[in-house]
Design brief:
Layout (H helix, E strand, L loop, with lengths): L24 H7 L10 H11 L12 H7 L4 H15 L3 H33 L5 E6 L2 E6 L8 E5 L7 E13 L1 H4 L5 E3 L16 E2 L4 E13 L5 H8 L9 H30 L4 H15 L4 H18 L2 E3 L3 H6 L4 E4 L11 E6 L4 E4 L10 E3 L2 E2 L6 H12 L17 H12 L4 H7 L2 E5 L7 E8 L2 E8 L1 H7 E6 L2 E4 L2 H16 L3 E10 L10 E10 L6 H10 L3 E5 L4 H11 L10 E2 H6 L3 H6 L2 E3 L3 H13 L4 E5 L5 H6 L2 E5 L5 H6 L2 E3 L4 H41 L8 H20 L22 H27 L4 H18 L20 H19 L3 H5 L5 H31 L2
Parallel strand pairs: 9-21, 9-24, 17-20, 21-23, 22-23, 24-25, 25-26
Antiparallel strand pairs: 1-2, 1-3, 3-7, 4-5, 4-6, 4-7, 8-26, 10-11, 10-20, 11-12, 12-13, 14-15, 15-16, 16-19, 17-18, 19-20
Length: 903
Amino acid sequence: MESYDPERRVASPAPMVDAPWSLPPVRVARALDVDPGRGLSEAEADRRRERVGPNRLREHRRRGAWAILVDQVRSLVIGLLALAAAVAGLYGEWIEAGAIAVVLAINAAIGFVTELRAIRSMEALRRLGRVRTRVRRGGEERTVDAELLVPGDIVRMEGGDVVTADIRLLEASKLQADESTLTGESLPVGKDAHDVAVDTPLAERSPMLYKGTAITRGGGIGVVVATGMRTELGDISRLVEEAEGVATPLEARLDRLGRRLIFLTLGVAAAAATAGILAGKDAFLMFETGIALAVAAIPEGLPVVATIALARGMRTMARRNALINRLSSVETLGATDVICVDKTGTLTENRMTAVRLVTPTRDVEITGEGLATEGAFRTGGGEVDPDRDPALRAALEIAALCTTAALPARGDRRPSGDPMEVALLVAAAKGGIRRPRLLEEHPETRHVAFEVDTKMMATVHRDGDRYRIAVKGAPAAVLESADRELGPDGPLPLDEGRRREWLARNERMAAEGLRVLALASREAEDPDEEPFARLVLVGLVGFRDPPRAGIERAIASCRRAGIRVVMLTGDQPATARGIARATGLVDHDDATVVHGRDLEAGLSDERREEAVIFARVTPRHKLDLIEGYQRAGHIVAMTGDGVNDAPALRKADIGIAMGRRGTEVAQRAADMVLEDDSFQTILAAIGQGRTIFANIRRFVLYLLSCNLSELMTVGLASIASAPLPVLPLQLLFLNFVTDVFPALALGLGEGEASVMEQPPRDPSEPIVTRRHWVGLTLYGLLITAAVLAALALALARGMDPEQAVTISFLTLAFAQLWHVFDMRDWRSALVRNEITENPYVWGALALCTGFLAVAVYGPVLPRVLDLHDPGRQGWLIVLGLSVAPMLVGQLVMIVAGGLRRSP
């Protein structure tokens, strides 16, 4: 096999630079014919894309139709059928051999069509997600699909972003990248814009970012030097074979159940055949009956029907804005009983609006909502003009300078960047301060990205022959770094008393449910000076993020469903408590909030189980909490949006990433992505997961009870030396009719309306519990008794044996069809329930009835299956005795339901 050489490049007709890591940034930009300050024009980007194609890797070879078809004959069941056909041929029974061959073809066709549709559905779902990148085009920054990138594009990257092309850095601020997907290096590596030697190994090329890696810290601006298959990741993709698919836990569980049933069924079938031979029946007939029994009783359709149910559930969730990345997640969702959720954008609208600005001299209310730049600054004495209030204007200028966000130049585009930064730009615009115009006066020379450690970010700007540093961050962090505050006539010393007063103001604002940032600045001689030292505090900004519409009802629904919602946030305890109260997570203002430092000191199991609000949590805290819940036996869902959330998303049983505001790293680590960032979507997905598992259990129970009735019917008749009520080919035909279509219909049901008013199921609970086995045995005995009674009654009325066997065959077939109504939940109504309101069930019953009619009255099948017209009297026996097991089953369900409800 060809080895991967990271130095090997692929020839390209696009603008390219050889060894861009060895050239200064200005030479790379010149070679790619791009102005870093403006980027490419849209027209030029389109021209380059026509030459190089879209920025995507070539898709792996899909699983072909032929491979899917071959898989349909790789099973023990098909082997048994083929053996039966061969034996029939050896005995000269060509009609039987041909009929079995037809059954083989029909089974293979059904499995092929359904599995092909499921696999293609999965492939279509994988294409629904779109990776986005911030790019500079025509002097404006915007967010575009990564597939639209071309060599020469200027892109901005920050912590949490996935690198979407090979990029030569032009600027970098404390930038680190996780390149483990490319180099195998487990630790993040530092990046900068300085060129290195041409022969530097890939893992040591500090000025390069490579497609498929992730930014873990800092930020930077770079120029795209390669896209698509011309990237280093593209070279690797060319040499990597597609990995084998891994069976989901549910599929593995079904497979284990099927294997156990195979051996059990083979034993019973062999015993029935032996008993018949000892009773004097024809040896070939009993051998053929044993094979047919074994084939009919093995639920070979379980994995296929389960895959269809799961894939359909994924498509349903996709229509409801929940994209599932892993098939097994559909099953796990139904057992979730703890949801750890971040408030911003999930419990709240993520529609930040700056509503308060507190300076050393004033407490100002900012009017206006959302992205509208019309608003005013008011105090108790009326409106305030920022041009006449130096502190207010200084705060608004810091808000406009210290950001990576941008307001749209035209009204038909959305703003880009963090919602809080966008809110700051809107607030500045209300005061007549626009970032582009301000940057013309104070050009940005350095950007220091926000870091978890410092809880601050900074930008450095030229101010005449000096530099101005603009800082924003968490109030406690900024106050700790500040030694002065802005007074009416300039900076004043910030002593401990004043620092405590500012902290108290911060607490009061947070208690009102506001999210608070501090603004500060200072002058510097050198742009490379430490930005977070000797700061001048300018003020505090309070943001309001309203609770999402309907969130209180959704949380109440979680309580009814036995699901505990836990809020994990990096906000201050007072802010967290205020939001929890506003969203209905708690119903009193003095609810207990667990602080991150309490987690570090060690949290008892009892306190963890009682708490629902955790504030000032770090990524490590989130991991510890998830592990604690899992040790206690909970199935945990975790929501997140940032790169720091990725470890917790992977650790949780269900990782849920935000689709609108989530980083690509978080989305890649998650099992589910919310396209609308809505908590209600999580709730709907859990309900769908519960419904899917209930449907799978329903059709498993239906298949097993039907198959058990066939085993009992033929086995008891053989042991009792009675005529066989069902012949071998008739058994195979029943397996095709009653096993496939009703089971599929049950798997496609919408489920009961009360699914979210029940507690979560135990994840360790098997699909078929002891209680279910008791029910299966009861139903099997009822159907068996009806079939044997039909055979005995027909013979007693003087009908010939062939006609009597037809009557017992039809009784078994219709009893199994009516048995589908016994699959309703015992809590549901007798007449209107999840089965009777499932249109697929009625369609399956109509289709199967048509097949049975053709089997009795058609041109060919009656001779192949040895079926005869039962006559009017025979049909009365069939209808009367086939309905009896269903009626008894409904009666038992009503009595059992009453006993369960009674105290």
